[in-house]
Design brief:
three-stranded antiparallel sheet, alpha+beta, 33% helix
């Protein structure tokens, strides 16, 4: 796997752990793994059947912003977009097939 920065996850086992966490929480956090000086928080956007159809991400300068403070707003925004696409919590979230 290609390392874009010195913080890029290139260990397959670690990457699988992170992907599992993303599936469980619906959130991905990246800390300078792709671009030096940039951190991001992303969440999934769901369609009316609970399938992930898009992602919503906020990218900030690394360091001055505590990502825990923007995480709730990113999640709320992803849920709002999902609801506009017809998703309802009673539908749940379908897991992608590996």
């Amino acid at each position: 796997m290609t390392a874009y920065t010195e913080r890029t996850v290139t260990d397959p086992a670690r990457l699988l752990e992170q992907l599992d966490e993303c599936r469980q929480t619906g959130v991905a956090v990246v800390r300078q793994e792709t671009t030096p000086g940039a951190d991001s928080v992303a969440t999934r956007v769901l369609d009316d059947e609970g399938n992930t159809v898009a992602a919503l991400s906020v990218v900030v300068s690394a360091g001055p912003v505590d990502l825990r403070t923007i995480r709730p707003a990113v999640i709320a925004s992803g849920l709002a977009v999902s609801r506009r696409l017809g998703w309802n919590p009673s539908v749940g979230v379908k897991q992608a097939q590996s």
